[in-house]
Specification:
The chain is α+β, with helices and mostly antiparallel strands and about 350 residues long. It contains 7 helices and 20 strands. The termini are far apart. Bound molecules: uridine-diphosphate-2(N-acetylglucosaminyl) butyric acid.
């Protein structure tokens, strides 16, 4: 028996804490409930929203259809050859708790991705990444429920077509596959990835002369994140609000002539990723507030719910920030969270 809540409050279910409602809400705690959910009269494949931790979503209005909150839990060891392990986690597991669990078992690989809000099932969708690591490097396969065949299936890492904040789940598979579990391949030996920003320095300080471990790197990541990024339980946000733009080498070169300190990261394909937070910061927008929404004072790439922001406040602020950056740098920023409905037009091309 599936409990359907009408006009459900979504404010506690989105980390931006926007005051919106779902026409109907159900909570999935076990994949065996899927056939019953599909049989609900309120279920419509094209309009249903499969919701994880609500940390990468911007509700611009009430959601006019069924929302299914993925809350299935469970972690199990699938294989262990003494060198690597394969561990499977259900989509509804909390991401950070899962990362901590793997580190407690001595399994390495996810330490740089500590403290990212959201669920395990949402991690592959936007290929979460931080401090020089993207989750794709540890994903073996993603288990999905295929809404067409109504069967469970596995997509290999290759089939997921991972890229920077992108995957197949944002494109052709959107609306067909519901992620129900993820298998990770983790290592029993530790290979530190410390090249990003001041991570090496903070981790070395924390190690206090002792050998570095994955848990120490995780602590360093948590420390850096807590200094810069808002705790969504205290200050609503959706993490980075824009993607770091990846631009042609020629544009990057001309921008760097004008702004030699613009942080930039050359990509394997010759393009260059630019630090959007730096550009927003250069527009003197840190702390800038419109209605209840504001640019975070410590990290300009993050927009926050300063004081009972409405969705309209956030949209107006995002447009303002985007226009300022476009005027200064001739770069159009793309939103990072999913907007429902999509309000800010995407850049052409
Ligand atoms: N910067 C500024 N001012 C700012 C913000 C950034 O000058 O207000 C500069 C920093 O000093 C640094 C550069 O811009 O030189 C990059 O900043 P930072 O290291 O804080 O990272 P980011 O590029 O702004 C990305 C991810 C974050 C992730 C960090 C660390 C995206 C869209 N965001 O942010 O991910 O935690 O790197 O790896 O790629 C998220 O996706 O929600 C998220 C928080």
């Amino acid at each position: 028996m599936i409990n359907v809540i009408e006009h459900a409050d979504l404010q506690p279910l989105n980390t931006f804490a926007l005051p919106v409602r779902a026409r109907w809400l159900v909570t999935l705690t076990n994949t065996e409930q899927l056939p019953d959910i599909l049989a609900l009269p309120q279920f419509e494949r094209q309009s249903v929203l499969w919701l994880g931790g609500g940390s990468n979503i911007l509700f611009c209005a009430d959601y006019p259809a069924l929302v299914v909150r993925m809350a299935n839990r469970g972690i199990r060891l699938v294989a262990d050859d003494g060198v690597q392990v394969i561990v499977e986690a259900a989509a509804g597991e909390n991401w950070h708790e899962f990362v901590q669990y793997t580190l407690e078992q001595g399994w390495c690989g996810l330490e740089n991705l500590s403290l990212i809000p959201g669920t395990v099932g949402a991690a592959p969708v936007q290929n979460i990444g931080a401090y020089g690591v993207e989750v794709q490097s540890c994903i073996e396969a993603v288990q999905c429920f295929d809404l067409e065949s109504q069967q469970l299936c596995w997509l290999s890492r290759n089939e997921c077509s991972f890229a920077y904040r992108d995957s197949v789940f944002k494109h052709d598979r959107q609306g067909r596959y519901v992620i129900v579990a993820v298998r990770f391949v983790l290592s029993r030996s530790f290979t530190p990835q410390l090249h990003y920003g001041d991570l090496a320095q903070v981790a070395t300080e924390l190690a206090q002369g002792q050998p570095l471990t994955a848990s120490i790197v995780a602590q360093a990541v948590c420390r850096i994140r807590r200094q810069k990024l808002p705790d969504p339980r205290v200050l609503g946000s959706a993490g980075s609000f824009f993607k770091n733009p990846v631009v042609a080498a020629e544009l990057a070169e001309s921008l760097l002539k004008q702004y030699p300190t613009l942080p930039h990261y050359p990509q394997p394909d010759g393009q260059v990723k630019l630090a959007a937070g730096w550009m927003i910061d250069q527009c003197s927008l840190k702390g800038y507030q419109l209605g209840g929404a504001a640019v975070h004072e410590k990290q300009a790439l993050v927009l926050v719910n300063k004081k009972q922001a409405s969705a309209a406040d956030v949209v107006a602020l995002a447009e303002y920030v985007r226009n300022c950056v476009a005027q200064h740098f001739q770069v159009l920023l793309e939103p990072e969270p999913v907007w429902l409905p999509e309000v800010l037009p995407h850049a052409a091309g």
